[in-house]
Every structure is written in C-alpha cells, then in structure tokens.
Design goal:
elongated
Length: about 210
C-alpha cells in the first residue's frame, strides 16, 4: 500500500495529535476521515485481489503439469503477499522438482512450512505454561500450617472432645459422687413378730 504526498501530510498531522493531544480543527478531522476511508477501501481491494489470486492458483495447480509456468508464477506472487503454502502446494512442487524454478520454490515453501510449525509449537507451549501457572498449588501440604493435621494422622471422630489445658476446668473429667454406704438396718431388715392366736377361738358347731 502506497500513500501520496497529501495523505502522508495528513498521517503526520494525525500522529502529532496522538502524541501531543491538542484541539484539532474541523479540516484536520475531515482529512483524517478521508484517509481512513481510503485505507479501508485499499484493504478491501487487497482482500479481493488475494482471493482472486488464490482461486487462480488452485485452478492452475489442479491442471498441472501442463500449467506449470503459470502455477509457479502465481505461487511466487502470492508468497510475496504473505501466503503460506499448504500440503497440496508442497506435493505439486515435489512433482515439478526437475524444473529449477520449482526446486527453488520447493525449498522456499519448505522453509516457510517449518517456520509455521515452530511458531505453532511455541504458541502451544506458551499457552500450556499460562494454564499451568493459573492452576492453584496442591493442597496436600496443608498439614504444615499451624493447626493442620499431620500427614498420616487419622482424623478425629466427631464425638471425641479435644484435650484442653491442664488448668482449664472444662478439660477436667467429671467427678463421680460416691454412693452412700447402706446401714445394717437397710441390708438386714428387722423380723416381724408373729401374731398371737385369738384368746377365744370360735367353737365349732355340732353337726345336725
């Protein structure tokens, strides 16, 4: 993308306003808007041209080997615009390696493919390291904290009362009250005296 002298003047003015904020005139604002619209249109046109070239490259690759000259020229052009070769391009270039131009492009495409693989692996490694850094530390060493349970020590039952300090009244075991000693009278109750017979026993009536 190339800028004209007028567009470069507007860009310099926009950069100056960004670095040293100051009130911008209406003319400066309109100039910046026009340059922004021009950049957007150039970006859209570049995307359309790229799509057109890639479609042509696919057609030329499908018609190989008769279209080798056109395919190699298109491939070199799209590589200069940031295109990354795919496995189909590498296979086509290996089939055309007898052509010096194809051999040179094959070496270039292999180098780009290796760079892409290394970049993906590095990005994956950074992502894995970032995920590992956000994982909380293991909780298996909480026994080292004050009041923590030592390793291998069984958990206390819920009904078990913790031992208190020697001077703590709540930690003392309950004192059992001694039972009273029974007296001999409670153990051996006194015998009851026999009831004496009546003085005048009832006379038996004679039969008849």
């Amino acid at each position: 993308m190339a800028f004209g002298a007028e567009e470069l003047r507007v860009l310099r003015r926009a950069l100056a306003l960004a670095l040293h904020p100051s009130p911008a005139s209406a003319e400066d604002v309109q100039d910046c808007l026009r340059v922004a619209e021009s950049v957007d249109e150039a970006t859209r046109e570049g995307a359309r041209l790229r799509a057109f070239l890639l479609a042509d490259l696919t057609r030329y690759r499908a018609a190989l080997p008769g279209t080798a000259a056109g395919y190699l020229a298109l491939l070199e052009e799209v590589l200069g615009n940031g295109y990354r070769p795919n496995p189909d391009d590498l296979a086509a270039l290996r089939a055309l390696r007898g052509n010096p131009a194809a051999a040179a492009l094959l070496y270039r495409c292999r180098t780009l493919a290796e760079q892409d693989v290394r970049t993906r692996l590095a990005d994956r490694g950074r992502a894995t390291a970032a995920v590992t850094a956000t994982v909380p530390a293991s909780r298996t060493r909480l026994h080292a904290l004050p009041g923590g349970r030592a390793a291998g020590e069984p958990a206390k039952k819920p009904t078990e009362r913790p031992a208190g300090k020697p001077g703590d009244p709540a930690a003392r075991p309950p004192v059992k009250t001694p039972r009273p000693i029974p007296t001999p009278g409670e153990v051996f109750p006194p015998r009851r005296k026999p009831t004496p017979p009546p003085a005048n026993p009832p006379q038996q009536l004679a039969a008849g």
